[in-house]
Specification:
Shape: globular
CATH superfamily: Copper homeostasis (CutC) domain
Order of helices and strands: EHEHEHEHEHEHEHEH
Largest sheet: 8 strands, parallel
Number of domains: 1
Number of strands: 8
CATH topology: TIM Barrel
Radius of gyration: 16 Å
Mean pLDDT: 96
């Protein structure tokens, strides 16, 4: 029997979370301010969402637009506050000015998140050398997923990279799950599934009215049906 593919949906609030869960989402990425590409939501929103749904919730750790860590000590305080509120799954990812992984920032946060699981998000798609980044983070405790489109321009551009990386699963630096998102459409799904990719991330695709409208349970259910077919 084949393993069910993971479907993760971006949620901004309780309404989104409930609709995503009703449509068949397995997990939420909880953020605020999509105009800045997703920042850390308020603790009160996190608590309300976790009380409203019984699926996994990964909370974004990012304080400003872009891929620089910025004020790492403030990030640490935010992470500690979220942990005290019961959060045990996160999303993060930081690069330095040269496009290398900001190892100091990522390792410091990983220490604060000891015992938690987390995703390294699409910063990998802006990295100067994604293979080097993966190898640097290969043994980082808690890192179990890379959210990636395979390229900064999105899945259409990055499809060959995604399929190649899926074929390297098990090699050093390639043990984490590939969670594909960033311009992902249903047309991409057959090739990705054929490559062995089993986790998918949608944001705007779950919102027929765009980011000004809520997640649609029907839109999520359509993705669920395609992934389960």
């Amino acid at each position: 029997m084949s393993k069910r593919a993971v479907l993760e949906v971006i949620a901004l609030d309780v309404e989104d979370a409930v609709a995503a869960r009703a449509g068949g989402a397995d997990r939420l990425e909880l953020v605020t301010d999509m105009a800045a590409d997703g920042l850390t939501p308020p603790v009160a929103t996190v608590a309300a969402v976790r009380a409203a749904v019984d699926i996994d919730v990964r909370v974004m750790l990012r304080l400003a637009d872009g891929f620089a860590a910025g004020d790492v000590e403030r990030l640490v305080r935010v992470a500690e506050e979220l942990r005290e509120a019961g959060v045990d799954q996160f999303v993060l990812g930081f690069l330095d000015a040269d496009g290398q992984v900001d190892l100091a920032a990522v390792e410091k946060l990983a220490g604060v998140l000891e015992g938690c699981r987390f995703t390294f998000h699409r910063a990998i798609d802006r990295a100067a050398d994604r293979d080097a980044l993966r190898k640097q983070l290969a043994d980082l405790p808690g890192l179990d997923t890379y959210l990636t489109a395979g390229a900064a321009g999105g899945v259409t551009e990055g499809l060959p990279v995604l399929c190649a990386e899926a074929g390297r699963r098990g090699e050093p630096g390639y043990g984490q799950q590939l969670l594909v998102g960033g311009g992902l459409t249903l047309d991409h799904v057959p090739d990705l599934l054929a490559a062995g990719i089993d986790a998918f991330h949608i944001g705007g695709a779950a919102r027929p009215r765009g980011w000004d409208g809520p997640v649609s349970a029907d839109a999520v259910a359509r993705w669920r049906r395609v992934l389960d077919a």
